[in-house]
Amino acid sequence: MPGVAIVANSWWQANEARKQLKVDWAATHADSSADYERQAEILRTQPGATLRADGDVESALGSAVKVVEASYYYPFVAHANLEPQNCTALFHESGRLELWAPSQNPKGGRQLIAETLGIPEDRIHVNLARIGGGFGRRLVNDFMGEAAWIAREVRRPVQLQWTREDDLGHDFYRPAAWHHFRAGIGADGRMSAFDHHFVTFGRDGRPVSGADLSPGHYPAGLVPNFRLRQSLIETHVPTGPWRSPGHSAYCWAYQSFFDEVALAAGRDPLEFRLDLLSRSYGEPPLDLARTAGTLRAAAEKAGWGRSLPAGRGLGLAFHFDHGGFVSHVAEVVADGRQVRVEKVWSGVDIGPVINLSGARNQVEGCVVDALSTAQLEITFADGAAQQGNFDSYGLLRIPQAPEVECHFIQSDHPPSGLGEPPIAPATPAIANAIFAATGTRIRALPFRRSGISV
Predict the structure, then answer these.
(1) pLDDT bucket at 268, cuts 50 / 70 / 90
(2) What's CA 333's distance to the chain center, in Å?
(3) Fewest beta carbons less than 10 Å away: which of 3, 275, 315, 386?
(4) CB atoms within 10 A of CB 53
């Protein structure tokens, strides 16, 4: 992408000069959140493209004892890693380029620089620095390309440091989406049909990064009649991997709706989920026994089913991604619309756990990250992000963080990572607990859209 660089002897000098710089930028697009919402409302009434169809959904819905319908929305969010994007580059007189970069993908950064500057890859050396927070943002190495280009032009060492406003305004965001659900409940209290219209974002007819949903995602294979439809809104906003890509967003919609279906069927949310995981129709989308094991572990430790006073509630959720099975039970206390998440119990199956303290750290971090992000959104007007710093994109504070109690199921299954799986089910577990405590069903993120403050 084109740009203007200011080079000075210090970051402060460069930034002060930048404030005086006047650039007449040509707008490449004028995407806005308001227009996205307008398009989504139109697409909601259209059939969309069918990605998967098992059985006869319409017939099953027509014969169901009860049909539950609900729509869920989550916004674009930024990575907002505490250390903004930065890189140091030195172009040697020999033509060799050396960089010091906090990258999650240094090889990709080297390839990008080689293509952009026309330098052979073997002439580029990347010294990998501590990341200072990545969560997927540093898989994209635009900041490395900037530093390399400037260093080649000035032939002096260059330390590039983005501002927070640069960072929030030029991210590769987790995309927003709308989920329109219908579920049929049979006389046995089980889901007999599940219809899902997924309105997401695309470019040139294909979902953008982080916006696609697998046709095999549960409850596909767990209900006899299943249909997934998809509609795309064309976007020019850059998107990319965000911690537990995709899963961290749409798990909230699925697991919140499951709670609605369970309550409509007059069933306990835990018992409903365990029953859902007790059988499959064809190839199951996940290991049913391991998933159920994490649910039982979290529920047992949380004392699921115990009597709670008014203003307190428990909520649960499960998920599988990146090889890990995780369930959470959250307990919240509410004072009107003000809610405090007191504690989260986690049941985790990722194979053998050797470094227990490191594993706990990952689970705790995921829960805190999920609770923080559930209160955030990035909106767009005239093609630009409207949030620029932590005054308008405020992260969770230490006093708001809940206690997290982790319980690991040691097994002989191949080990998986733990930086991704625990984040997805945390948001719906908390949202379901908020419903139990307040009676307010959160169907749109951030929480404040439903009048809930944390």
Answers:
(1) very high
(2) 25
(3) 3
(4) 14
